[in-house]
Amino acid sequence: MKKIFLCFAFTGIVWSCGNIKKEEATTEVKTNIEEKTNQELPPVSEDMMENAVIYEANIRQYSEEGSFSAFTKDIPVLKKLGVKILWVMPIYPISTTKSKGTLGSYYAISDYTKVNPEFGTIEDFRALIKTAHEHGIYVILDWVANHTGWDHGWLKEHPGYYTKNDKGDITHTVGTDWTDVADLNYDNQEMRKDMLDAMKYWIKEEGVDGYRCDVAGMVPVDFWNTAVEELKKIKPVFMLAEGWEPALLKKAFDMGYGWDTHHVMNHIAKGENTVAAWDKRMVQVDTMYATDDILMNFTSNHDENSWNGTVQERMGDAKEMFAALSYLSPGMPLIYSGQEYDMDKRLLFFEKDTIIKKKGVFFSLYEKLGKLKNENPALHGGKNAAAYTRIKTSQDEKIVAFLREKEGNKILFVANMTKESVKFTAEYEGKFRDYLSGEYIKGLRDQECILDPWQYLILIEE
């Protein structure tokens, strides 16, 4: 058999192929919204969801200023990364009663229809939306419907809006350590109405394009179903649930969290699981979810980074491979603030911290992955996702290989999911262009291949 020695070119190691021929590659929006945002962006659509990259913006920590204005300056940079949806972490005033740390949690809200002066003014936020829309990026706000901070006006004006214990005292969410928030009672229909009115405000008056809904599974599904139906009467919206439950995606939400996919990645990176766990998860996704459901793929987010560790801590040398996998597998990839700058620190959550913007490996990688995701239908991961076909190899416990295919476009992903070099053969034939190196490869079947630890290939079939 002929040997193919494959080494990931992006790390600076050039791969070669012995005896293998290769050559160099060659609803109408209301007037007040339009006035405030100068929106020229088409309405949210299923087509947009197919090839989108989503970015989570941590305004407080993104810059030294921690302001809307400082973040807005970098929106053109996000465009270069292929970002089409901007998820902004909670922008609302934070309660000081029972707050944690010096600055408190974004998720302890004292007013749903105001902005936190820590970040700037409503005019500054409007400028952020306007700039994003001008760059073809939709803006969704983080919405916290399960609880409010202890300073929220509802506690004095409408104590019946909240959950109470046996003594009749308003309580934080049972079973959590969220002592800085008061749990809302969804048996109260007036509370539901006021919550929906607050959600309508940002869509109708400020032109945002949807919501990422915090702990969505802890809020009754029937509320979400009604709320989203009402929001869509104003304009099309994109809805992301912080939850995995299929019931959330049946009607209300476009996308949910791929939590179990993320956990499988972590376990494989630590050597606790093999490729078999990945294969099992792909089958689980295919059986649990409807064909039009979207899952968000991620190697980090604000919870993972602050509480469970950086990508380097959790994934080590496997971090680049899993970043690529989050783009190549079905779903929508997430970039969390700082990941594009190789961030390797746990951001403080209740205090001021700052992301250091110094380009390393990941900016260029995300730029290339974003371009591929945006432009090649084989990576569609929305309502009409491209097919995912597992390719058999001689080392299926160590090597993952799969084909994404749509409209005649084919992309093969091959990766070594171990910390040792692996020799293998793959049962697939074709002529490919290595997306990252630009070189052409003819063949794979019946040829012995070698991949270094955590090495991967993105092969575009010609």
Architecture overview:
- Helix 8 packs parallel to helix 9, helix 11 runs antiparallel to helix 12 and helix 15 packs parallel to helix 16.
- The protein is built from 16 helices and 20 strands.
- It has two domains: 79 residues, no CATH class; 359 residues, TIM Barrel (Alpha-Beta Barrel).
- The N terminus is likely disordered.
- Helix 6 links the parallel strand 4 and strand 5.
- An eight-stranded parallel beta barrel has the order 3-4-5-8-9-10-11-12. A six-stranded antiparallel β-sheet has the order 13-14-15-20-17-18. A four-stranded mixed β-sheet has the order 2-1-19-16, with no helix packed on it.
- With 462 residues, the protein is α/β, with parallel strands linked by helices.
Keywords:
alpha/beta, 462 residues, TIM Barrel, disordered N terminus
CATH-level-4 superfamily name of the largest domain? Glycosidases
CATH fold descriptor of the largest domain: TIM Barrel
Helix percentage: 25-40%
The CATH architecture name of the largest domain reads: Alpha-Beta Barrel
Uncertain residue segments: 1-39
Q: Give the C-level CATH assignment of the largest domain.
A: Alpha Beta
According to DSSP, the number of beta strands is 20
Radius of gyration: 23 Å
Briefly say what this structure is.
By secondary structure, the chain is an alpha/beta fold. Helices cover 30% and strands 19% of the residues.
